[in-house]
Amino acid sequence: MAVYQHNTRILVALDCIIFGFDGESLKLLLIKRNFEPEYGKWSLMGGFLNDGEDLEEAAGRILYNLTGLRNNYLEQLQTFGTVYRDPVERTISVVYYSLVNIADQDVAAIQAHNASWISLDSKPALIFDHDQMVTVALQRLRYKAALHPIGFELLPSKFTVPQLQKLYEAIYGTQLDRRNFSRKIMATDLLLSTGEKDTNSVTKKGQLYTLNSDRYRKYLDGYYTFLPELAELSGT
Amino acid sequence: MAVYQHNTRILVALDCIIFGFDGESLKLLLIKRNFEPEYGKWSLMGGFLNDGEDLEEAAGRILYNLTGLRNNYLEQLQTFGTVYRDPVERTISVVYYSLVNIADQDVAAIQAHNASWISLDSKPALIFDHDQMVTVALQRLRYKAALHPIGFELLPSKFTVPQLQKLYEAIYGTQLDRRNFSRKIMATDLLLSTGEKDTNSVTKKGQLYTLNSDRYRKYLDGYYTFLPELAELSGT
DNA sequence: CAAAAACGTGTGTTTTTGACACAATTCTAG
DNA sequence: CTAGAATTGTGTCAAAAACACACGTTTTTG
Questions:
Q1: H-helix or E-strand containing B108?
Q2: How does pLDDT run across A62-76, given as a tens digit for each residue?
Q3: Is B121 in a helix, a strand, or coil?
Q4: Tens of pLDDT along B85-107?
Q5: Does residue B161 reach within 7 angstroms of strand D, measured from its CB?
Q6: How far is B67 from B108, CA to CA, in rounded Å?
Q7: What is the DSSP string of A191-204?
Q8: Is A150-231 the same fold as A11-147?
Q9: Complex confidence, ipTM
Q10: Does B112 reach chain A within 8 Å, measured CB to CB?
Q11: Class assignment of domain A11-147?
């Protein structure tokens, strides 16, 4: 087999940023490392690209190992490649982010990896450039969720409108008007009524909806400003 | 120096998608290869990541070699990493896209690389997965240009509103209403009047504006729907 | 059974969009 | 040197969307 001459081959890692939502706050699945390097510190879940493995496939494998979940929302975020980002050896890292329904997790797999769900508010410092990765991922999540209905990926298959609103409020760290939010979401025709009510609620039980997946796919292609009030320019 | 054991090191390439605008149509700077592999075929400008070189730095180097330009708009698009994308040897490619003012190019450097500006409409087939890269880049450009004022990067420092409109029409392949477009752009306060007029125009000479760079930077952070009519869902 | 908490729907005002009219500038043809 | 064609600049108005609030309903708790 022919090869390219005179060019350095380097390590290719993958890191996964795994978002979840517990009904109150946005969470990350992080690992307290019980292995080297950086034993004892917190990091993202990661691994190396194998021979004969596509990038997307490798990201899926890493996600599956940790959560037991397949077919989640998984999107390439960005590749990080400054020279000394990994002090052990030069390594570039292709970072993916994933949105999972926290209820579907494989608790045993998570414990086996010494991982836990941490609120973004109380996130510890992470190794290498993983903090920067999380920052970029959160930006991307905010960006995409304002224009595409990907928030549903973080909710159970049946959910109420107020739950969805709490999710958006957690993602953006703001308060939204309940009535306008409801009208906006309903206008998309993305929700299918199940007729059931949320039995977990303490007070009035909200109506449970499921996602209209045909319409969902269409909304992923185009874009729709779900939350115009979030478009505000940061500097003004 | 410690190293990670048992993991394959692979080649990391970079490819650059270089967009330009000639006043009529959106163009790509493509290379007719006079070197192996795939001698004689068309491809993107690319290269390999060097030791001691950041990814962003490498992309900038490749762009500079071809165009003689630095400090252009340069953004990482995505990393392509299916196993057999390069038949010579497994290689992942970190792809960047760049927006350049076509008037600033270094003609000698471009000729030396056997490159030319090709309209997107008449783009030849490219090697490997470069066609797919271009498709993704165009999607990204359309996405970003609808929400951030990055179109200006493709224009000369002084430009008229009709020129800007022609650019948007080329990016999206549609016709826009002149009067509504003007109102929308003016409302952003992004344009600074120079008092001069466009002497190249054949008929009525339009007013030349420059970009208000302070406001420009703010618009890059947040988002603003420059062209709401482009939000239409592809499937409906 | 009264109060508190959360849910669901409605209404009016303001802002933005989208469609279109008209006047002004500049070159060219006769 | 003037009429007409092409293009640029500004304005108007109706419809749609966004925004700010009001009110009634459901359910648990004390």
A1: helix B107-112
A2: 999 999 999 999 999
A3: helix
A4: 999 999 999 999 999 999 999 99
A5: yes
A6: 9
A7: EEEEEEE-TT-SSS
A8: no
A9: 0.93
A10: no
A11: alpha beta
